[in-house]
Amino acid sequence: MRRYLTAGVVLAMAGGLLVGCGGGDAGGSSNEINLIMSNHPWQRAIEPLIPEFERESGITVKVQTFAEQQMRDKVQLNLQSRSSAMDVFMALPSREGPQFAKANYYEPLDSYVSGAADYDAEDFPEAVRAGMVVDGKQVAAPINVEAVVLYYRKDLFQEYGLTPPTTLDELTSTAAAIKDRSGGQVTPIALRGQSAALPFTFGPFLHSRGVAWTKEDGVTPNFDDPRAVEAIDQYATLAREYGPDGVVNNTFTQSSALMAAGNAAMMLESSNEVSSIADPKTSKVADNLGVVAFPAGAAGSRTTILSWGLAISSFSQKKDAAWKFVEWATSAQTQQKLTESGIAPPRTSVAGSEAYTASLDTDLLTEWNEVLTSAQTTGSTEVGPVGVAAPEMRKIIGDAVGLVILDRASPAEAATQIQDGLAPQLAKNEG
């Protein structure tokens, strides 16, 4: 049996329970582990399979699921209090990796991986494996792969006499044409505007122009490059002129809801959202959707690639049992089952299996798989500037671009704000 706790109950208990048990045994059997996950397509796919693991291993998994930011708060609370009440947690090393590694929050997985004869770590593409490594140590095991892609309404594009944009310039002109030909009745493009979430979809505008977040030294921001100003200008223009009302409050949930309801002609979002917008039970446009690669800039199509992972807390007192769960959840067998729920497999053997490719039984899914496969070789794994202050740096970027969306700052002013704001945060990497 697993016990599910609501976010409200857990957060209410947090102050009186978790801090008090820092470093001590969390109670419960040695064959019982605590897993914390974000509300995410992978989480929704893995939960129904967990009873299989429990039967096979004899280990009980107590699951706690939260909205993403609540999950981060919960994980942070456990780690900062050195609590053993959390054993396994969903992690995004590209976001918090350096910060958590510096604080010794991760239990390194290298010895577990090398000691698991049937695990086959080489089955993960090099870029996926690299995304799980911080300071030379593997801190998590990959559970998915996702990229920023462009979804579009095939029926509307046919009606308006348009073709999907292949370049950044075409993306803006296509959005303008949709606004004109729809008479303002359809939102031309849904995209992120919420500060903390924006860098994931903004990054490709920068990288496709040939600009990295930082210069080669890794500690000097790159927003004094004129191409960074261009990227800010284009993203903010798309959001302000062609995005939905209230776009600065939107992240993937709002964008997908707009697309599924038939209220947007294009959506710039994670490949993960294909299951949200194409579910025939909830989507009004499931039969009319297409997907193409992120439009190319002067440096080509350089989308953002990221993988979530499963990490083990360094304060867990049940690390062996925790690894057994991580090993099972990221095995080829389990990942094959997860593909039935639309989870793109990070393992090469699963992605190339006949069972998986046969499951891509619609034009949309076939296009989606082709775009995602290509993105893994051309994309950038840097979701934002890399460093111990990654969350703060993403907020600096999101806040500044948001001001341009709201027409409260020029693109050049925003670039200067980002340049000045990132510099002291990146300097912490040298501390």
From TrEMBL:
Classification via SUPFAM superfamilies: Periplasmic binding protein-like II (SSF53850)
Pfam families in UniProt: SBP_bac_1
CDD domains (UniProt xref): PBP2_TMBP_like
Domain of life: Bacteria
InterPro entries xrefs: Bact_solute-bd_prot1, SBP
Designated name of the protein: ABC transporter substrate-binding protein
Species assigned in the record: Micromonospora rosaria
